[in-house]
Amino acid sequence: MNKILKQIYTLSPIWVQNLMVTLYGKKLQMLRYGKIYHENLNHYLKKDLSDEKSEFDFQNDELIKFIHFAYNNSPFYKDFYSDIDIDAINGVGDLSMLPILSKEKFRKNIESIYTINESEGKSSFTGGTTGKAIKVLVRSDDVQKRMAYLDAFKMRLGIDPVKLKKATFSGKEYTSSNQSKKIFWRMNYAYKQRLYSTFDLSEENMPYFIEDLNAYKPEVLNGFVSAYFELSKFIEANKIELKFIPKAIFTTSETLMPHHRELIQRVFKSKVYNQYASGEGACFITECKNGNLHYNIDTGVIEKLETEFGNEMLITSFTTHGTPLIRYRIGDKIKFKDGACSCGSCHPLVESIEGREVDYLISKKRGKVSLSHLADVIKGMPNNIINMQFVQDREDQIIIRLVVDNEKYIKNDEALIYKEMEYRFGNETEVIIEYVDEIKREKSGKFSLIKNNLN
To answer: In this model, does residue 356 exceed pLDDT 90?
Structure first.
């Protein structure tokens, strides 16, 4: 949403905001649900996931095509692989011939990695959960293929994601500071979707959220782990009766821990399904009907990079033609699991994915502000933040440590950060920006976006 539309939205009454959300939802539908979507959805639904040879042959064929595409269309990869005979790569087993793409190299060379202009595709920003936000360009055919894959995953579970009534909790800004009514949600009628603003999900406001959920009675729940976990704690502690039972709950953006799953499923009386992707467009990991995570080899390649802190993922994704990802060190860790799944899929089993912790800082005005909301502070900034960290030692103060690209970072960017922080924390929290040369890794080997020293 551009600045003028955002101003109009902010000043408009709620019914107009619902109309604007619906019109934007219609625009997204046209982008996501075209001819390529329907062709791929039928293909994915008919696939025999138990045919091991066919699935691994497909992965190798797609990998070879994708590497040649990146080499021939991306100036960066042309140079990155200049000393490598890419014709010698005949499958996944040969990927080690190629260099690893670090997140910093990806950020720094993003303009030459693109294979399309911004007018030829859709801009998407990573959430920056490890402190870096990067703009990627996505081709429309890849958008439709990814939507088809996700919808096929849900349909195999017996959930029609288009027809059913949905509720989504995310970090988008729906409410306006000048509104007087306790209405913290907006309606996307084009997609049968009620959108809840998690910025307003405080202890004080939770009764309004729950009352509306009971009135709306969604058939499917989507969104942040932290939102459903906090809601579940409040519902159980206050012995509130839910007047609906969703057919499924699909969590995104944050790590789903066993205690999160157990409480959410107990309170909502519905099964939680986990999934993994990324703002950059990583290949998928999805949960099957038997509750096992599968690395979906028909969407890309996940390699293990052994480090002293565990196995990090190297991502190659077949649906990133606009901004190719090949052996991309995304920063998340993975544990695979031996054996075959009784669901019949030959796709490898995943025991756990680490790296998206449900962490938070405290706002005197809003209560807990989760990692996903903080990651969005730098979402949309023009690739000029090298690293970032939020530190809270006092409830009324937050220190932001920034490592910036001095050639791209300007003073106006600092004002934008202050504005985004005020939106999330209110004006009672003092925000201090500290410019530093580096931010040290944690013992886990990762950069921690959040350091909450109040606990």
So the answer is: no
Q: Could you please state the CATH topology (level 3) that the domain comprising 365-452 is classified under.
A: GMP Synthetase; Chain A, domain 3 (3.30.300)
Query: Which DSSP string do the residues of 142-175 spell out, in sequence order?
Result: HHHHHHHHHHHHHHTTT--TTTS-EEEEES----
For 37, 42, 179, 185, 193, the CA distances from 167, given in Å and listed in that order, are 23, 26, 22, 10, 6
Where is mean pLDDT largest: 46-50, 170-174, 329-333? 46-50
Phi, psi of 162 (to 5 degrees): -90, -45
Q: pLDDT value at position 132?
A: 63
pLDDT at 445 over 60: no
Pick the CATH number of 35-151+277-354 from 3.40.50.2000, 3.30.420.250, 3.10.450.50, 3.40.50.12780: 3.40.50.12780
- What is the residue extent of each domain of the chain? 3-32+159-246, 35-151+277-354, 365-452
Report if pTM > 0.85: no
